[in-house]
Every structure is written in C-alpha cells, then in structure tokens.
Design brief:
This protein is mainly α. It has helices at 27-32, 50-65; strands at residues 3-4, 37-38.
Length: 67
C-alpha cells in the first residue's frame, strides 16, 4: 500500500524509482522497496503523466530534505 507523499518522513536516504506510464514499476522492485508513495489526486483526474509526477515528487522531496 502506498503512502501520501505529504505524510512521508524524508530524513532517511531516499531512492526514487519511476515506472513507465504504461507498465509502472515491476513487482520485483515493489517487493524490495521499504515504502511506496503516491501523489493524491483531486477532482475527476485519476492520473498525471510520469514526467509531471516525477517533477512534483522530486521538488517536494528536495524541499523536505533541505529543511
């Protein structure tokens, strides 16, 4: 189960794995991951493209780490 990216404590080392828009991340990578995060979606949208999601997530993570 994934965690809202706003609720994660980014004090540990972070490795970001980005899946493809069509296939996501392999089950093997999911199985060895400590956590899986998601960006909450509002309104009628159920997804955003991988480049946009990556940009939003990395911006958020870097801002949390540098504080």
């Amino acid at each position: 189960k994934s965690i809202d990216y706003n609720k994660v404590n980014y004090t540990e080392k972070v490795c970001v794995v980005i899946g493809s828009e069509n296939y996501g991340v392999s089950q093997e990578l999911i199985n060895i991951s400590d956590q899986s995060i998601h960006l909450p979606m509002f309104g009628i949208n159920t997804s955003i493209n991988v480049a946009t999601a990556t940009s939003v997530a990395l911006y958020h993570i870097f801002n949390k780490i540098k504080k």
